Amino acid sequence: MDELAVATGIDPVALRLRNYAEKDQNHGKKYSSKEFKACYAQGAALFGWDKRKTSPRSERRGTALVGRGMAGGVWEAT
User: Fold this and answer.
1) Where are the beta strands (DSSP E) in the chain?
2) pLDDT value at residue 45
3) Which of 21, 29, 30, 49 could form a disulfide with 44 if both were Cys (CB 3.0 to 4.6 A apart)?
4) Predicted pLDDT of residue 74
5) Comparing C-alpha atoms, which of 15, 18, 70, 19 is closest to residue 45?
6) Torsion angle in degrees (nearest 10) through CA of 25, 74, 11, 21
7) CA distance 55 to 9
8) Do residues 70 and 2 touch, judged by C-beta distance below 8 A?
9) Pick from 19, 46, 23: which is nearest to 34 by CA?
10) pTM of this prediction?
């Protein structure tokens, strides 16, 4: 997703929000406890997401590259 975001010029968080699913695609049921939207907002605020350099391999700390990205996952239980 981060690579797709860079290739399309869309912020990775914004791309995930555009593709946010309100219901389980396998069963058509609404998620009962999915809080990704709140997690995206809280994580972005806490990590200074809006202040990061957006192009890959553009941020360094001394000679070391510093990477910032995001990921999310859902564990399906029945």
Assistant:
1) 60-61, 64-65
2) 92
3) 49
4) 67
5) 70
6) 20
7) 10
8) yes
9) 23
10) 0.71
Among the listed residues 22, 76, 11, 18, the one whose alpha carbon sits nearest the alpha carbon of residue 49: 11
Per-residue pLDDT of the chain in tens (78 residues, 90 and over written 9): 888 988 999 998 899 899 888 888 888 888 777 788 888 889 889 988 888 888 878 889 999 998 877 777 767 666
Sign of CA dihedral 49, 20, 72, 39: positive
Residue 6 corresponds to which tokens in the numbers above?
A: 């860079």
Q: Both tokens of residue 44?
A: 């972005």
Handedness of CA 67, 55, 48, 65 (dihedral sign): positive
Distance between CA 6 and CA 25 in Å, rounded? Answer: 26
Rounded distance, CA 6 to CA 9, Å? 5
DSSP state of 32: S
Predicted local distance difference test score (pLDDT) of residue 62: 94
